[in-house]
Design a protein that fits this description.
single chain; seven-stranded mixed β-sheet; mainly beta; four-stranded antiparallel β-sheet
Length: about 120
């Protein structure tokens, strides 16, 4: 059974940084794309970033380019999301997702597996 566990969230003042982790266990993925998504209260789930586990190619939402960095540690089966210059609008539950069903990677519903999420709060 594939399991994804996010960690690293918390309450951080605006301008600060966080590194979120997503540890994968329990299986292997046929499609080596993992993504990060976030959902703020009252809003739709939003694509943040994705990475090709195999080749390292990365994809970002325009709204986070320059502040968010996705990376992976293959030895640890872990994907990271570095968030710099945090803003109040970054407040959300952040989810990682794995095993894209097809070529689309920009919706959380494109993935077979997702974690329980980690809360990031940036007070205004």
């Amino acid at each position: 059974q594939v399991r994804l566990v996010e960690s690293g969230g918390g309450l951080v003042q605006a301008g600060g940084s966080l590194r979120l982790s997503c540890a994968a266990s329990g299986g292997t993925f046929r499609r080596p794309i993992m993504g990060w998504f976030r959902q703020a209260p009252g809003k739709e789930n939003e694509f943040v970033a994705a990475i090709n586990w195999s080749g390292g190619a990365t994809y970002y939402a325009d709204s986070v380019k320059g502040r968010f960095t996705i990376s992976r540690d293959s030895a640890k089966n872990t994907v990271y999301l570095q968030i710099d210059i945090l803003k109040p609008e970054d407040t959300a539950v952040y989810y990682c997702a794995a095993e894209a069903r097809g070529s689309s990677i920009y919706s959380i519903y494109d993935y077979v597996y997702r974690g329980q999420g980690t809360q990031v709060t940036v007070p205004s």
